[in-house]
TrEMBL record:
Species whose genome carries this gene: Thermococcus litoralis (strain ATCC 51850 / DSM 5473 / JCM 8560 / NS-C)
GO cellular component terms given for this protein: plasma membrane
Protein known as: C4-dicarboxylate ABC transporter permease
UniProt keyword list: Cell inner membrane, Cell membrane, Membrane, Transmembrane, Transmembrane helix, Transport
Pfam families attached to this UniProt entry: DctQ
Residue intervals of the Tripartite ATP-independent periplasmic transporters DctQ component domain: 22-157
Compartments where located: Cell inner membrane
Transmembrane segments: 12-31, 43-64, 85-110, 130-153
Coiled coil feature spans: none
Major place of residence: membrane
Organism phylogeny: Archaea, Methanobacteriati, Methanobacteriota, Thermococci, Thermococcales
Source species, domain of life: Archaea
Membrane topology per record: Multi-pass membrane protein
């Protein structure tokens, strides 16, 4: 297994255990809201952040495992050689999209870090920092984009074997 896939596989264990943390936070929030009649807005924010981390960081591992949903109505009806070309194009589109998102997202995350951005939607009493969360999105896209490299190389290798074999 290549280093990028190994990294994403190891990260998947963090993601897997973060679901337990999300469960505890949501149970806490529900318990305080229904049993104590005191909704804790901090718990809502934390659960949203944890869901975001889970969703975004899980993207690279899901890509590696081939777990993304795809519509393959046309794909299954075309010859094998065309499918191999479509696979290469598909991975290339994901790679180019990732690069664009990194180029757009990194400056936004950097600016947010520089100004130490906070979420003041709840007022001045509770204004949690959110600059770090913007970096989670950028790092996730970097991991997804990096994951496309070994996938693309493998598809090209398969294409070459198919052409010469």
């Amino acid at each position: 297994m290549d280093p990028i896939s190994r990294l994403n596989s190891k990260l998947s264990f963090f993601i897997m255990y973060s679901t337990l943390l999300i469960t505890f936070v949501v149970v806490y929030e529900v318990a305080t809201r229904y049993f104590l009649n005191m909704a804790d807005s901090r718990a809502i924010f934390v659960s949203v952040w944890l869901y975001g981390i889970l969703f975004t960081l899980g993207g690279a591992y899901t890509l590696h495992e081939g777990g993304h949903v795809s519509v393959d109505i046309v794909y299954r009806k075309v010859p094998e050689r065309v499918r191999k070309v479509l696979d290469i194009i598909d991975i290339g589109v994901v790679m180019v999209s990732g690069i664009i998102l990194i180029l757009v997202g990194a400056p936004i995350a950097w600016r947010s870090f520089m100004i130490r951005e906070v979420d003041s939607s709840l007022g001045i009493v509770f204004a949690p920092p959110i600059w770090w969360f913007k970096w989670v999105a950028v790092i996730s896209v970097v991991l997804i984009t990096l994951q496309t490299i070994p996938m693309l190389l493998e598809k090209i290798k398969q294409w070459e074997v198919n052409q010469h074999g």
